[in-house]
């Protein structure tokens, strides 16, 4: 048998070869080819040693754009762009300059004026800008028109936040939730941006004669959204089953503006070892740990995703399973960065988001964090007189954490009570009221009565007490 020509590959390769580079060598003794694999790690090491590849991701150069409308001041918009610059830094971009424009209303075609867009185009060319980021939400048509003038990638605040979430998502549930939010944000923008997909075509595999590529893509996106929602529903059901085992213990959720120190506080109280970094949205997944308030009292403490101004509604909807930890908590701890110059604005944003989640009426402690970073201590006395149930702590230094634990115990004693009673099985009105206003911890049936152990807020006790007998 004649040797096969150099470089010839066997007819049958392994179905799923291990990662690496495959090389083939002709063996004269058995007149066959042998497969040799060089693992990728050795190849990468060799290339890196030869300085052929730069493994550090190059940061993008960015311009950020803010529009001042009649109901805003320039100072407000400057503060908003400060936050946008932090978001850009988290996403891997360096802000080279800022652009402002005062307008009565957004331009339907460009959001800003066409002249201002042309001005930005000149800056992009001179400064070699990679990306232009708007602080307000843009339509697909506006993005397309701006990119045609500016000749550069244009995104809005929502796209930037979604990109950060995508890069920080580590677990399967977080990745599914982020992908769902991205697709729901993309769907209405397909028409405005992809004009090259408007050409009609027909044939096998299309919805019908004359369907456009754009319509096909929309169907594919909708189908993917349906699949992701189905997966999320399965995860929600799993989490509900997990939460059923937590009913006999008080649940406390940490809420607050992003980068306020929620994960640091969880680590300080529980040794949870949750990932912490001084960047926005470093933590996306809910983490729950047991905290001992005293030798006889324990609680479950949950860290949740942080809030931010103009938090995309797609994210709130997609992260419902994570935010359910807030909905089902007995007590909320609102963590506030006391060193932030915009702390009042951040408190307002969190309160508005909690109202949107229908959780603003829950018992709440306001934990003013990072007191080690403030120089003027008078602000502590001012905030203490303004906010009820306020505690001043430093999670990173472990300052005043016992006072926070004592405040949690005080809230539990003030607001909740556990009672046991019987109700006739036939009394559907009574059973409905009990499940509506309280949480049933245990339920035992006999022939005529249902014996219930109930955890309920004291303010609701009079709504069910007349139904119960000892």
What does this structure look like?
The protein is an alpha/beta fold and 470 residues long. The protein has four domains: 105 residues, GTPase HflX, N-terminal domain (Rossmann fold); 73 residues; 155 residues, Rossmann fold (3-Layer(aba) Sandwich), CATH 3.40.50.300; 52 residues. Helix content is 40%, strand content 23%. The chain has 15 helices and 15 strands. The chain has a six-stranded mixed β-sheet, sandwiched between helices. Strands 4-3-5-6 form a four-stranded parallel β-sheet, with helices on both faces. A hairpin with a 2-residue loop joins strand 8 and strand 9. It starts with 19 loop residues before the first strand and ends in a 13-residue tail after the last strand. The N terminus is likely disordered.
Give the H and E element order.
EEHEHEHEHEHHHHEHEEHHEHEHEHEHEE
Question: What is the CATH third-level topology name of the largest domain?
Answer: Rossmann fold
CATH H-level homologous superfamily name of the largest domain: P-loop containing nucleotide triphosphate hydrolases
Q: How would you sum up the major sheet? A: 6 strands, mixed
How many domains, as an integer? Answer: 4
Tell how many strands the DSSP assignment holds: 15
Q: Catalogue the unreliable spans.
A: 1-26, 41-56, 192-211
Cα distance spanning the termini: 96 Å
Mean pLDDT rating? 79
| Secondary structure tally, helices | 15
Q: Which CATH architecture of the largest domain?
A: 3-Layer(aba) Sandwich
For the record, the CATH class of the largest domain is Alpha Beta
State the helical fraction: 25-40%
Q: Using the alpha-carbon principal axes, give the shape.
A: globular
Helix/strand-derived class? alpha/beta
The neighbouring-strand order within the major sheet is: 8-9-7-10-11-12
Gyration radius over CA: 29 Å
What is the percentage of strand-forming residues? 15-25%
């Amino acid at each position: 048998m004649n040797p096969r020509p150099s470089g010839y590959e066997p007819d049958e390769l392994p179905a799923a070869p291990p990662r690496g580079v495959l090389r083939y060598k002709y063996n004269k003794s058995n007149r066959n080819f042998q497969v040799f694999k060089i693992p990728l790690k050795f190849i990468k090491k060799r290339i890196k040693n030869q300085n052929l590849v730069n493994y550090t991701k190059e940061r993008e150069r960015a311009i950020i754009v803010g529009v001042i409308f009649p109901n805003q001041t320039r100072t407000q918009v400057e503060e908003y762009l400060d936050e946008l610059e932090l978001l850009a830094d988290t996403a891997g971009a360096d802000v080279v300059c800022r652009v402002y424009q005062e307008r009565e209303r957004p331009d339907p075609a460009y959001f800003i004026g066409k002249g201002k867009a042309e001005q930005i185009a000149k800056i992009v060319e001179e400064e070699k800008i990679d990306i232009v980021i708007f602080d307000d939400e843009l339509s697909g048509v506006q993005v397309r028109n701006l990119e045609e003038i500016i000749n550069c990638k244009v995104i809005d605040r929502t796209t930037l936040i979604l990109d950060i979430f995508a890069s920080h998502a580590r677990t399967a549930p977080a990745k599914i939730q982020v992908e769902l939010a991205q697709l729901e944000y993309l769907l209405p923008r397909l028409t405005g941006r992809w004009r090259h997909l408007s050409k009609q075509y027909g044939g096998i595999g299309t919805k019908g004669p004359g369907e456009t590529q754009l319509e096909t893509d929309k169907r594919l996106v909708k189908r993917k959204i349906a699949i992701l929602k189905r997966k999320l529903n399965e995860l929600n059901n799993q989490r509900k089953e997990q939460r059923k085992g937590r009913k006999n213990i008080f649940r406390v959720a940490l809420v607050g503006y992003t980068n306020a120190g929620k994960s640091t506080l969880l680590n300080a109280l529980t040794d949870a070892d949750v990932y912490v970094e001084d960047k926005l949205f470093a933590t996306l997944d809910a983490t729950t740990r047991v905290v001992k308030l005293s030798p006889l009292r324990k609680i479950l403490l949950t860290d949740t995703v942080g809030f931010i101004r103009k938090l995309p509604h797609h994210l709130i909807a997609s992260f419902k399973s994570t935010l359910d930890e807030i909905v089902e908590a007995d007590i909320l701890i609102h963590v506030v960065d006391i060193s932030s110059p915009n702390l009042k604005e951040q408190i307002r944003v969190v309160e508005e988001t909690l109202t949107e989640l229908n959780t603003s009426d829950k018992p709440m402690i306001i934990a003013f964090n990072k007191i080690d970073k403030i120089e003027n201590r008078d602000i502590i006395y001012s905030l203490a007189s303004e906010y009820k149930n306020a505690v001043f702590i430093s999670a990173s230094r472990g300052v005043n954490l016992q006072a926070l634990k004592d405040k949690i115990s005080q809230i539990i004693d003030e607001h909740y009570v556990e009672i046991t009673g019987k109700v006739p099985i036939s009394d559907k009105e009574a059973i409905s009221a009990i499940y509506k206003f309280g949480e049933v911890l245990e339920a035992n049936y006999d022939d005529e009565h249902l014996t219930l152990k109930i955890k309920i807020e004291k303010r609701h006790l009079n709504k069910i007490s007349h139904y119960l007998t000892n």
